[in-house]
Amino acid sequence: MDPITQEMLSSSTEMNSFTITTNTPNSSSMMGSPSGSSSSSAAAASSAVSSPTTLSRYENQKRRDWNTFGQYLRNHRPPLSLSRCSGAHVLEFLRYLDQFGKTKVHTQLCPFFGHPNPPAPCPCPLRQAWGSLDALIGRLRAAYEENGGKPEANPFGARAVRLYLREVRDSQSKARGISYEKKKRKRPPPQPAALPPP
Question: Where does the ALOG domain start and stop, copy by copy (predicted)?
Fold first, then answer.
C-alpha cells in the first residue's frame, strides 16, 4: 500500500489529539534572588509551567489533509513543489482520492439512478462524496495560506476547482436523488420601530 493511501485511510479513521506543550517560566523565575545563589536559578528553571494546547478536530484534520497533499506532491511524477502546483494538480489529486470513496454514485444506465435509497445492490462505482470533497478543499485552502501561500495564488481556490466541485455536486445530486440546496437561514423577526421620545 502506498504512503498516500495509508495516510488517507488513517486520516479518515484516527481522531487522536495533537498536543503542543510550551514551557514558560513563572513570575518568580523572572526576579533575581537576593542571595544571588545559582541554586535558586536552577530551581526556577525546573519550576517552568507547562500549558498544553490541544488542537480542535478541524485543526487536526486540516493538518492531516495538508500532510497528505504534501505526500501526494512528493510522490507525483515528476515530483512537484508547492510553488508550481496549480488548479489542474488539485483536480488530479481529487480524482485520485475517488478510488477511496465510500459513496455509491449511480450511472445513468443503472435502474436506481436518482433513487436515494436503492432496494438492491448494483455495480455502480464508489466515489468521494461531494460534501467531503468540498470540506477537504476548504481545509486545504486555509492550510495553504497558513503555510505561507499567497491568497491570490492559492491553487485550491482556482476557478477550475470550483467548477469541478459544482459539477460533482450536480451529478451526484441527480445520480443519488439527493438535493444539495443551501439551507436558508431563518431571519429573526423584525423588531418594532422604536417610538421617538416625546
Answer: 57-184
Contact 19, 53 (CB under 8 A): yes
Tens of pLDDT, residue by residue over 74-127, are 999 988 888 889 999 999 999 999 999 998 888 889 898 888 888 888 898 899
Q: What are the start-end ranges of the H helices in 31-190? A: 38-46, 57-75, 87-97, 130-146, 159-176
Per-residue confidence band for 13, with pLDDT thresholds at 50, 70 and 90: very low
pLDDT of 115 reads 83
Other CB atoms within a 10 A radius of the CB of residue 128 amount to 21
